[in-house]
Amino acid sequence: MTHVDPGLWTTIADTVAAVFLLAGAFLTLGAGVGLLRFPSLLARMHTVTKPQVLGLILLLTALALRVRSWSAVGMLVLVVAFQLVTSPVAAHMVGRAGFRTGKVDPDDLRPNEFGEPD
Amino acid sequence: MSPQSRRPAHQLRRLGSQWHALALLTLIWVLLWGDLSWANVIAGAVIAVAVVTMFPLPAIDMHGTVRPWPAVVLGARFVADLFVASFEVAWKAIRPGPVPHGAIVAVRLRNPEDAYLTITAVMSSLVPGSLVVEARRSTGVVYLHVLDIDGSGGPEAVRRDTLALEERVLRAFASNTVLARCGLVPGDAGTALDAGSTPPSGRGEGDA
């Protein structure tokens, strides 16, 4: 993509990159605010798995659109792939540990179907 | 480490059966270095062999197929859901007013085989406003924490969404036998492809 007509496509790529940067920044901000505002451990884990992951994906996509080099894109794809695979597992481990060690108040959860007979 | 596994011929066969892992590790190495050259590919392959030999993992018990179209449906739906879920959670965090009210919902999946249970659990953590707190391999029940139970439409809606996600996963990756056992009619694609390639007693080892 380096020596395509630099006019139109560059403008399009830059515009999309700008939109993605703003959206990614909004999501990352949301993740940060949620981490502070949400009352419980489990609710906080939601901000780690959803807005944070997509925010990062959008920011990196924007970066790839701006940098336009395949070696950088390869690295960014790796970051996204590992983020998608690891962040649910990490959130699950934290949530499960918190749940099992009593850091989660079961009364906050209505309904709480955990521990009901199958 | 049994003495048998140290025999070179045995090790070679083992490596041959793990060529997926080797190829993937080599690809990751090349991507990390950022350019495709023989030196990188060879170094990556050597390191992949070293990693696979030094950190052996049990084989994944997954005799499925990949159906291209359902896989595309699964992927497209996943991306769309990821956008919706992310903006929802971010908005719930930022908007003024009380924070939402959470709950734990138990969902019994149709197919408790490890590979599909894992894929469904990971995807449901990322996507529909839920987070896996606990998963029971023996019964195939997944306990999901839902951030906003009222906004998600109650426990029944969460169960329905999760089962729909599982159905997309199964349609994309599971064999026809598994689909039939789960009460899903095999899709129009590839009905005659591999009927009976998997023994119907594929599970039963779920207790751990």
Automatic annotation (TrEMBL), chain A:
| One MF term in the entry's GO annotations | sodium:proton antiporter activity
Report the domain of life of the source organism. Answer: Bacteria
* Name the record gives this protein: Multisubunit sodium/proton antiporter, MrpG subunit (TC 2.A.63.1)
Q: Does the keyword Endoplasmic reticulum apply?
A: no
Return the Basic and acidic residues bias intervals.
Answer: 102-118
Q: Which UniProt keywords apply?
A: Membrane, Transmembrane, Transmembrane helix
According to the record, the segments passing through the membrane are 12-36, 73-94
Task: Report the InterPro entries cross-referenced here.
Answer: PhaG_MnhG_YufB (IPR005133)
Which PANTHER family does the entry link to?
A: ANTIPORTER SUBUNIT MNHG2-RELATED
Q: What Pfam families is this protein classified in?
A: PhaG_MnhG_YufB
Q: Which family does it belong to?
A: Belongs to the CPA3 antiporters (TC 2.A.63) subunit G family.
What are the boundaries of the region Disordered?
99-118
Region forming the signal peptide:
none
TrEMBL record, chain B:
List the Gene Ontology MF annotations in alphabetical order. monoatomic cation transmembrane transporter activity
Cellular compartments per GO CC: plasma membrane
Entry's transmembrane regions: 12-32, 38-57
Q: How does it sit in the membrane?
A: Multi-pass membrane protein
Keyword list (alphabetical) reads: Cell membrane, Membrane, Transmembrane, Transmembrane helix
Tell me which InterPro entries the record gives: Cation_antiport_E
One Pfam family, please name it: MNHE
Q: Which domain of life is it from?
A: Bacteria
Cellular location(s): Cell membrane
Query: Which family does the record claim for this protein?
Result: Belongs to the CPA3 antiporters (TC 2.A.63) subunit E family.
NCBIfam families for this protein: PRK08965.1-5
* Name of this chain's protein: Multisubunit sodium/proton antiporter, MrpE subunit (TC 2.A.63.1)
User: Which species?
Assistant: Krasilnikoviella flava
Read off the lineage from the record.
Bacteria, Bacillati, Actinomycetota, Actinomycetes, Micrococcales
